[in-house]
Each structure stands twice: as C-alpha cells, then as structure tokens.
Design a protein that fits this description.
The protein has ten helices and two strands; from the N terminus they run H-H-H-H-H-E-E-H-H-H-H-H. The protein is mostly helical. It folds into two domains: about 5-80, no CATH class; about 95-230, Butyryl-CoA Dehydrogenase, subunit A, domain 3 (Up-down Bundle). The protein has a two-stranded antiparallel sheet with strand order 1-2. Helix 5 packs antiparallel against helix 6 (about 125-150) and helix 7 runs antiparallel to helix 8 (about 190-200). The model has no long low-confidence stretch (mean pLDDT about 90).
Length: about 230
C-alpha cells in the first residue's frame, strides 16, 4: 500500500476531527471500501493487502466504521461469493491497528508528561513497560500479516485472532496504568481506544473459542502438528 493512500486516511480522519460519523462518508466517497475490487468490476483497484492496510490505519486512529461489512459485500457483488474469512480478516486488521494506535498514544503521553523535571519515558521501569506493550503490538501485526499471506486459511485466522486478542487485553490494561487517572477522562482519547479494543477482541466470537479450535486441530494432527501450529504463534 502506497504511503500516499495511508496519508489520505490520516488526512480524512484529522479533517473530520476523529469523528467516525464524519469519517465514514468521506471514506466511501474516496472509494476506499472498494479497494481490492478490480476497476473493471466497479472497484478502486489494488489488492486485498491494500484494503487490509487501510482498515488497519482506521483502527490505528480508533475510528470504528462499517468498512469490513461494506467491503465484503462489494467483493461478493464482483466475484459472486465472499472469500472465506474476508470480513473476519478485516475485523482482525481493525483490532491490530487499534492495538498499535493505543501504544502510539501511550508513548506520546509518556514523552509529554514529566516527573521530577524529566519526561516519564526517561524512567527505566516506564520504558520497560512501554517496550512490553510494543512487543504485543509487533506480535499482533505479525499475526495479521501471516493471515494476509495465507488467504482462506482458517487456522491462521483463528491464530491471528488469539494473538491479537491477547495483545488487546495486555495493551489496554497497561495503557491505563501508564496514563493514570487522566486516561479515564472524557476529554482524553485513551478511552476511545480501550473501549474499541474490548469490543474488537471479542469479534466475531470470543478468542477462547478460536484457541480451543486451534488446540483441537493441533492434537488431531499429532505431535508434529502441535509443534508446528502452536510455535508458529
């Protein structure tokens, strides 16, 4: 995905003052839900990975839109059927983007807030805690990218959901710890992120259901499958 398109998403969100109700009409007008559908079929061109990047960026800004369902409908209209797990892949992209955005606003907060005359980020324990959040985000991003590279792979998608949901739990909890009481205020953006994280992590079903299914698949395949399936995540 070109940096220009991601910059367009950033611009749309900023111009709408981070209001999802104002963002969505502009996203539609820009043809972003039709990315991944060929121009010959009335789409905006590009590939599935391009749309995943757009949806991930919207999640990064904690902007909840119906782009996953709208894109799935567009693909169904052009191809006659929706690719297996397509809507779930886009939901996963929203979750991963929101995890990454939560880490980003937490890092910015720690750079701005001072204690004893220095930014909080200068404290070793704070840096370590932020690094732990970053690790969760990187793992979630890697899981998403694996799903993009293996379209239609239900096991990969289930594993991605498990990893990203676990990251969402850790990141939301840690972000509130590092923000303190200010993160609970209506004026601060953190609550927009964490509320979406709690919403997104249980879509389209609780992650424990996917974890159970993955465990069952691994056990049925024998010791080698257990190793290959579980250590991949």
């Amino acid at each position: 995905m070109s940096s220009e398109v991601l910059a367009l998403v950033d611009s749309i969100v900023a111009d709408a003052e981070f209001d999802p109700a104002r963002v969505w009409p502009v996203v539609v007008d820009a043809g972003l839900p039709l990315v991944g559908v060929s121009e010959a079929d009335g789409g905006s061109g590009g590939g599935p990975a391009d749309l995943v990047a757009i949806v991930r960026r919207l999640g990064y800004h904690a902007i909840k839109t119906p782009i996953a369902s709208a894109s799935a409908s567009a693909r169904a209209a052009s191809a006659g059927a929706v690719s297996s797990g397509w809507a779930e892949l886009l939901q996963l992209a929203e979750l991963v983007g929101c995890v990454e955005g939560t880490v980003a606003i937490t890092r910015a907060h720690l750079r701005q807030r001072e204690q004893f005359g220095a930014p909080l980020l200068d404290l070793p324990t704070v840096r370590t805690t932020l690094a732990e959040m970053q690790v969760e985000a990187v793992q979630a991003g890697a899981a998403l990218e694996r799903c993009v590279d293996r379209p239609g792979d239900g096991a990969a998608l289930a594993g991605g959901h498990v990893v990203a949901a676990a990251a969402a739990t850790v990141v939301s909890h840690t972000a509130h710890r590092l923000h303190g009481a200010i993160g609970l205020t209506e004026e601060h953006p953190l609550h927009r992120y964490t509320m979406l994280l709690w919403d997104y992590r249980d879509r389209p079903r609780p992650a424990v259901a996917d974890a159970t299914a993955l465990g069952r698949l691994a056990v049925e395949g024998g010791p080698a499958a257990v190793w290959d399936s579980l250590t991949a995540w």
